[in-house]
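I am still learning, so can you show me any protein sequence you like together with the matching structure tokens, please?
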Amino acid sequence: MSLKDGQYKVIAEVYQGEKLPLIVNVENGKVAGIKSEEKLADTNLNKAVIDTFSHEISRTQSLNVDAVSGASYSSKGILVAVKKAVVDAGGSTDDNEISTANVERYDATTRTNVNDYSNWREKPQKIVKTIDTDLVIVGSGIAGLAAAVQAGELGLNTVVLEKNSFVAGNGGGVEGIFGINTKMQQAAGIHTEPEKIIAKEMQLVQYRVDGSFWVDLVNNSSANIDWLIKNGVKLTKVDDYAGICQFPTFHWFKDGVAASGYVPYMKKKADEYGVKFLLNTPAYSVIYEDNKVKGVYAKTTEGFIKVNAKATIFATGGVGHNAKLIAKQGWQTKNLKFLSMPSNTGDGYQMAMSVGAKDMLQESPEFMDNYIQALPTNRLTKMAPETMIAGGGPVIWVNQNGRRIANENITSYNMLYQHMPIKATRNTYVVFNKKIWDQFAKIALLKKPDPDEILANAVKKNRGNSLYEENSIEALAKDVGIPEDTLVKTVSDYNDFCHEGRDRGFNKEKADLVPIEDGPYYIGRLDNSNLVGLGGIGENNKFEVIDENFNTIPGLYAAGADSTMQYRSVYTITLGGSACAHSVNSGRHAVMNAKKYMQNL
């Protein structure tokens, strides 16, 4: 089949409906390549799909290609877009039919049973290959890469299993890392007392944690950053994370993202040490014999392999993309929007639970924001929910009974507080008017697309029946089925508080007490969008996984978002970069302690 030469521009609809502009190049009657019109980081999920498909489609001149592991949504969307380009170039749709069977891949969430994790210990019937190694690391995000480099530095024979076709995971989007009394801070004239940071974090988690985890993290942070820099990681500046942090301890990665400043350098260093990375290879189950963890079984395109290891580290990135596990924490998942990597399905957590690990999931936090389905939330509109109307401020939050539920400005204390009150309600709604919408648009410096047009289109389409416009508060109440008299009184009382300059309900700051008196009025249902889960597996200060009686499970360690014993319920982002710092610290020290364990076998 001969195609008409040229460059064909198409739009791919990828994960969460985001639009990705592509160029399909046709030369000498054949597809010669695919590229993104936007500059994508090397660790970007969509770039991995584009690069893979560009090679395979150019080689085979067929759209009958397998999806990239961990990227089924993007794979299908990009294939559909490329098909359109082929048709535009004069190709036959029949010859290039896309089969969804080629797009569907292994989905670990289908194996999730919150009442019984024993299937995560099952032995596959057929093993096509066996690998013997000192250490196996499951996952290659921030923690997995730190562990890999530390293992190489210590001379351990190491295998890293990665579900995706590239390293980084959720870690590729991390902006920076926490550190205290580092050389960068000293050069900038910044001095902070560690004990004040530790005390503040303990206060924020209501003293519900073993504070020794914070002491270790804070006191190791400077040495960890020195170690990263020694291994090539690029950090550019240190500040208070644009005012979000309470202390100037946020060290920014090059280009403001780990995909540029951390991932490529750590991967290169691990390669230099001879660490073996097996991509497109998800861990399937844990090997547990003689009351010890002795490695894992993994799934490859050729079949199952067995990785025998003296020690095993789970660094699989948490449970942020597994609705069943998030529901186990008590969150409503009916309208849950996933922002995390599709690969973060809690594999490490489930394998750990299958061997009797201490279950910390219900006490662990999710990195969630509020959003309204009807409103656009992708980056092209610059109307992210955490900075716009769903995140709080001069608005009113009411429950299914029309009662106000919290100080709507709590995000000024911690950006992630916004999702906590709505965990306690059946439904939560945000009430605002056009004046408040205009105020948000002004703060966001939003001019194009037009904010009035965005709001009007959102109300008209009303995706998810989540946003209504009316000329009276009573009509708003009818739209969502809450008591009219209660909502009217709630808004009336709130307006009185605004005029008085005193919030007699929840003591909201005077600057955010803006009366809602003039229409048009709006009410939007608040749902959760989840980026990542932090925690789930119980471990001790050596990052050894423990059981419910705090006894260690020999041979098993947890690092990164799979562990995080220092958090409870909500991520204290006021100490920006602490999760990244924990990932590096736990990855490094899990390996150090694993080596000691191996020496005593």
User: Anything to note?
Assistant: The longest strand covers residues 127-138.
